[in-house]
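Re: that chain you flagged

S.,

Sorry for the slow reply, it's been a week of failed gels. I finally had a moment to sit down with the sequence you sent. For the record, here it is as I used it:
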Amino acid sequence: MPFGEKDGRLYRPETVDRGKKCGCHCPECKVPLIAKCSVAGRFYFAHHRGAECPGGYETALHKMAKQILLDAGRVWLPERDVLLSFPLVFGETLSETLHFDTREVHFVSAVSEKRLDNGLTPDVTALLKNDAELHIEILVTHAVEENKSLAIDNVMEIDLSWLSEETVLDPVALEAEVLKSAPRWWHRCSLIDELPKVHAVREALEARVPIEIKRLERQREREEAAKRKKERAAQQKEERRQALIRKKAEAREPFEIALRNLEQVESMGWLTLGDRLAERAKPRLEEIARRLRFEPEKWPTFMDVSVQREWVFKEDRRLWQSAVFESLILDKEPGYIFSVAQALAYAEKVAGVREWALKLSQLKQAHLKQPYNQRKDYELRGVWFLTPAENNAIRSPYAVVLSYLKKLCKRGVLAEERPAKTFRVLASGPDIWTAHEKEQRQVKAKAVRAERGRATLQALLGDIFPEDEKYQKVEQEWRARREDVTQRLDYSVNDANAIAAAGHETALFCLSCKRHQLPTPINECPVCYSHRVRVVELTEDYLRTLLHRLKCMP
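Prediction finished late last night. Pasting the structure tokens below so you have them in one place:
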């Protein structure tokens, strides 16, 4: 027991006589106390002829705190934040927080356990110099009840429940905790809430309410106006987009048949069309071979050059390339100059130009001169109502023949005199045929070396393949498998190029059969019905390296 009660006051054991002469009793159970001192010199109270009461320590601390307040006649008030808030419009509020730091106040008078008019009794009631009453509650075991904290004005609470026994037994430390250091807070406080400073800030905020309401209303009007403007802009943009779509559809209508033919030939149609053209041109090709005295199976490479979009001509490329070569190059002396227009005339005379391709070519050439195309790079120019894939696929017969002549320049047959206009013959006819015969001999020598290598391999592996027929059968099977794989890889590359040429940016790639298909909602390969598919982007790098990557796949 830290304190003993005598004559209504609490005393420490070291301030009274020893033993029963102290005249003190327990503040809780009223049993007489005995003042003692331990061997270590520690003073304390003990109950006389009775067990220690459970609540004696808390009651003694509670009463001692009240006694300290009454004796000191002063206390440090808790800090307080006063929030002033006024509702505005649109869910907004105008608010300001005033902060009041802790400060010391002195009592004019103070009493303990004074019963108020509402029937409640605070621990200490003090009268301040401004004639305001301050009510103080001491927390040791039980906090202030809610109804009491709401019913009493200017009530503060001091928390002593956390104090250690050493602090309680130290008179100076305990007094400092009660008066200033211990945690404390307000429950209600008109003492601060009604200060002139608070009233002044409240009135200033209240005067600003109409101004803030008008500001918020103007801001909301501006926001709504901006929103309406944005919506109108989006609507106008969509209307312009729809109008452009309709305008494009109207402009495309006269060219729908030509564009359908373009899409067909740029997709899988050219694969079968090339075979049909070669079969149809076979008699004429044999006639050319007889006239120029070479075997049809050994067609000269300079008259069989693959050119991009060569389908603009109605016949096999060997026909019009032979006509150009024979008329303008073969019989001419080195230094002879001819124009691309002359070469085009011979090509058109022999092979003819597809009407729909010529129609699209003329359309594109007419639009290339329009002002909206002059600001673009040449590769990006085209017809405004066609897709980029369609613009890229359209090529004039002039450009096709020009590409063929430029490839002959790389072979050393021609030299470009005026860019894209005229060419000069570099090699004479005998030189060209000599080069062709040399090329054929190289092909034949290569075949002979391959045959000798095969024979040498057969001799070395005679024990493994003792029978030549058995070896030939194995080799044939291997070659068949290789051709099958090569053919499937070519199909896959052609599929990807055709899908890209049709204007699609992505394709469905099957990991089982290595084929490319158009994207479908069902992730299933229509060739092998496998679900091991993934979507790939048909970029230029992807298409350029596709064959190599397919060969490297397991």
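What I noticed first: The radius of gyration is 53 Å.

Talk soon,
D.
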